[in-house]
Amino acid sequence: MQNRTLGRTGRTVSVIGLGTWQLGADWGDVTEADATAVLAASVDAGVTFFDTADVYGDGRSEQIIGSFLAKTDAQITVATKMGRRVDQIPENYVLDNFRAWTDRSRANLGMPTLDLVQLHCPPSAVIDSGEVYDALDTLVAEGAIAHYGVSVETCDQALSAIARPNLATVQIILNAFRLKPLDEVLPAAQAAGVGIIARVPLASGLLTGKYTRETAFAANDHRNYNRDGSHFDVGETFSGVDYEVGLQAATEFSELVATLPVSVTPAQAALAWVAQLPGVSSVIPGARSVTQVEANAAAGALAPLGDAFTAGVRDIYDRLLRAEIHPRW
């Protein structure tokens, strides 16, 4: 497993981390025993970075991680997120609420000081507000959090956040089907020393190449109920790509992976490609089984995939997806 510096936190983390949305909710049912097994297998595979949020299962994901951390000596950096449990208006993003939200996460995780707290895809007005960052700086001074970042939905939001002097990280959707952050966001983050946490790296599983038109998702799985973005940002579900178009692109991606000189799965190639982008600190795929954990972690040790592979990724994106994700093209 390769390791990177997590932006301005100065912490060293595994280039393949673990996203834990699925341990709380919205991906079908995951038992606490299975969730704990996923966490343990991640540590065994060299993963040292967990990403969660207070809204995942209304705290269930944080609580499971907290119980696990209490029983292990492993040095794990935990990033959580806050802000999505209230109405998404700027007036809710104030110091008193920040204190209450972080107190709840500290209790859930059993951590006196949170390693990294990220605003959870707030409105642009929040990301642009100097008072918001003053409040976050106060939390650092009070010892409630060690560092803070922002999880964003757009590149403009990312660029606005990166300009803040004490911001440690930006979390953004980044995968072979979502290339826009490569143009400006990654270079700006690198120049500022801000870490990039890449989420939805497998396009909600499309890039595994395992889905078909007949694949059925559980009623409580966002890949079933949020394809139109009616519950939250559509980019979180299949990266905002129409499912039928995504299947075609996934087929071509799998064919591209087959041209590599090493034997890897489409999922491993997708993760490795994002992890190898300049400026990326950690990639956070989810996993619901030990087998998935081990396969994902192996992607963090792969040799560079090469320029020809990147050219193939861009070709698929330009032909099939650019107009789908960015209709103005």
Please name the defining characteristics of this protein.
329 residues, alpha/beta, eight-stranded parallel sheet, two-stranded antiparallel sheet, 10 strands, globular
What does this structure look like?
It is a single chain. By secondary structure, this protein is an alpha/beta fold. The chain is built from twelve helices and ten strands. It has helices at about 30-45, 60-70, 95-110, 125, 130-140, 155-160, 185-190, 220-225, 245-255, 265-275, 290-300, 305-325, and strands at about 5, 10-15, 20, 50, 75-80, 115-120, 150, 170-175, 195-200, 280-285. The chain has an eight-stranded parallel sheet. A two-stranded antiparallel sheet has the order 1-2. Strand 7 (about 150), helix 6 (about 155-160) and strand 8 form a beta-alpha-beta unit. Helix 1 (about 30-45) packs parallel to helix 11 (about 290-300), helix 2 (about 60-70) packs across helix 3 and helix 9 packs antiparallel against helix 12 (about 305-325). It is globular and about 55 Å long. The model has no long low-confidence stretch (mean pLDDT about 95).
